[in-house]
Structures are given as structure tokens and as C-alpha cells.
Design a protein that fits this description.
InterPro entries: DUF3617 (IPR022061). This is DUF3617 family protein. Keywords: Signal. The chain is mainly beta. It has one domain. It has helices spanning about 5-15, 60-65; strands spanning about 35-45, 50-55, 75-80, 85-90, 95-105, 110-115, 120-130, 140, 145-150. Strands 3-4-5-6-7-1-2-8-9 form a nine-stranded antiparallel beta sheet. A hairpin with a 2-residue loop joins strand 3 (about 75-80) and strand 4 (about 85-90). It is globular. Mean pLDDT is about 75; it is low at about 1-25.
Length: about 150
């Protein structure tokens, strides 16, 4: 079984695939990037279990972690513009996730993901600039534990 934090990184990747402000230089089917700062993600998994986390990002961490499997061999993803957002399909390590991300992409996004028979809903909210005690890649887990995505197993 994968490390639980690595699994959360996958979930964050799926949840944040299309979050953030989109550059006008991008094609319609390219995923936008999140606005740098602190983002909160409240995920509801099957069975109604909810987990809320926060993550501090900058341009570099967004490029590295924004799209599921973007920097990994054997992974692929597709994005398509739909009214109010994007639909997506990604495959990595033999697992496929499909879903939508709908919202204003600057402040709030609702992401729905279906993967391997499981359904997840994530509500992402921009909280503002990262606090002084957080660095890009920091994830504040439930209970206050802080992990940095750059230090997680791949």
C-alpha cells in the first residue's frame, strides 16, 4: 500500500488539476494554474467522510504538482473546457480518474472526481497569501501536522 501522504498528494493533484487563474496564452484544453497563496480543500469521500487540508503554493510548486502525473513517466491527462470550468481524465499507475472542476478559478472551485469506483467531491477555497510560517508546498493536515509535498515519497 502506498504511503497515506502520497495518496493525499494524488488526491490533491486530482483536486487541484484545474484550480487557479488561467493564463490567456493557454489553449482552451490546457489546465489553468491556481493563484499563488494558501488554498483550503475540503474533500468528501464516499460514505460522507470529510477531510479538510490547506496548502501553500507558489508558481514553482504549482508547475510541479498541479496536474496529476504531469512529471511522471507512464502518466497521462486530458482536459476539456466545459461551461464554467473543465472536465478531465487522468491515468497514472494503472488508475484512472475522471471528473469536472467548476468555479471562478480565482477564489472557489468545486471538483468532482470518480476513480476506481470511488466518488470524491472537493471544495477548494482561496484563503489569501501564505502565512509567514508556511513555505510553498506545505500541506497542513487535519490535526495540524505539516508536511511538504516536495518531501513526500513519489
Amino acid at each position: 500500500m502506498k504511503h497515506p501522504i502520497a495518496t493525499m498528494a494524488f488526491v490533491f493533484g486530482a483536486g487541484f488539476i484545474v484550480a487557479g487563474a488561467m493564463s490567456s496564452a493557454r489553449a482552451d484544453d490546457d489546465p489553468p494554474h491556481r493563484k499563488p497563496g494558501m488554498w483550503q480543500q475540503a474533500m468528501t469521500m464516499g460514505g460522507g467522510q470529510t477531510m479538510t487540508m490547506q496548502m501553500c503554493i507558489d508558481e514553482a510548486t504549482e508547475k510541479q504538482f498541479s496536474a496529476m502525473g504531469r512529471n511522471r513517466a507512464g502518466c497521462s491527462q486530458e482536459f476539456h473546457k466545459v461551461p464554467g470550468g473543465y472536465s478531465f481524465k487522468g491515468t497514472c499507475d494503472g488508475k484512472t480518474a475522471t471528473g469536472t472542476a467548476i468555479g471562478d478559478f480565482d477564489k472557489a472551485i468545486k471538483v468532482e472526481v470518480d476513480s476506481e469506483g470511488a466518488h470524491m467531491v472537493s471544495n477548494l477555497t482561496y484563503l489569501g497569501p501564505c502565512p509567514a510560517d508556511r513555505k510553498p508546498g506545505d500541506i497542513v493536515m487535519p490535526g495540524g501536522q505539516v508536511m511538504n509535498m516536495k518531501d513526500m515519497p513519489k
